[in-house]
Amino acid sequence: MNLDIKKIISTLLFFISVFCSAQNVGVLDEKNGYKIFKLNSDKIKHHKNLNIIENKNNYSVYNYVQKYDYYFVNENRRISRDIGWGPLAQMYYTTPQKIRELNPDIKTKRRFLVKKNQNILVPIRKISKMYPIDQSLFDLFGFKIKSIHLTYENSTNKLKKINLEITEEKSVVAINGYLESQLKNIYYNFAEIIGPTNGLIRPSKDCRYNSCLFFLERAFKGEILWQSNNLVLKVIQDTEPKISDNGIMSILISQSISFSDINFENSLKNNSF
Question: What is the DSSP secondary structure assignment for residue 199, as one 8-state letter?
Fold first, then answer.
């Protein structure tokens, strides 16, 4: 085989590899998010299960949680100890003013405390409706997801980012191998669906079944990403050493898997400098 033919075959194999990778990563655009959460969908779809965490720069971050609607019924309760107005109100999810309204003859001590050994009328919170969450959303390739955070654009109420948080605490014994295996597990599960990362650096073929530099370099703190036409998928692994009260050292492992609208990601980059 002459040199020109070798060059042609090598070039063809390169373009075939790039084309196949592009085809696979296109699955990201087809799925457009994570399970029931679809990027650029309206907040109204999940608003009953959202607790706000942060509101900043025209974006709001929410925790996806089980929530409830409540109603209140006034019931008698015995006060067994002297207690301040604030703590008493907090116990019943109400205000000091509401307790005073319900109990005009309530006995107090130095005006700041409600006296013990008396019955008072208080509003009791009861559940009228529950808004459950889909528990299957909290399992990713066998990993237990601790929390799901959803970022919405305030001006449009459209979903721009889905973030899955996984945390665990492990002994430092053989931690390097464990961290590498955890990162590889997530990476290759995604790779089977959408192909290898299309970042500048990729793991070699023998990395799957052998220790390799690509994953070792990212085991304690690192990032792997896939980018399609409309979406960016990031897998981030981070670690933090911890020492217990009795002097035992452990490692807190944090993994973050995010699905982001590509325009949202680009706007974050543009505003970072």
Answer: S
The string of pLDDT tens digits covering residues 95-109 is: 999 999 999 999 998
- Locus of tokens 């999810």: 93
- 139: part of which helix (H) or strand (E)? strand 139-140
The span from the CA of 200 to the CA of 146, in Å, is: 30
Find tokens 């307790």 and name the residue.
Answer: 99
Give residue-wise pLDDT tens across range 46-69: 999 999 999 988 999 999 999 999
Distance, in Å, from the CA atom of 164 to the CA atom of 192, rounded to the nearest integer, reads 19
Q: How do beta strands 67-79 and 50-56 pair?
A: unpaired
Q: Contact at 8 Å (CB) between 237 and 221? A: yes
- What is the rounded CA–CA span in Å between residue 240 and residue 26? 35
One-letter amino acid identity for 217?
E
* Separation CA 213–CA 207 (nearest Å): 8
Give the residue ranges of the chain where pLDDT is below 70: 1-23, 272-273
Q: Tell me the one-letter amino acid at 120.
A: I
Nearest to 268 by CA among 242, 243, 232: 232
User: Taking CA 241 as the corner, what is the angle to CA 235 and CA 243, rounded to the nearest 5 degrees?
Assistant: 150
Nearest to 214 by CA among 229, 227, 224, 226: 224
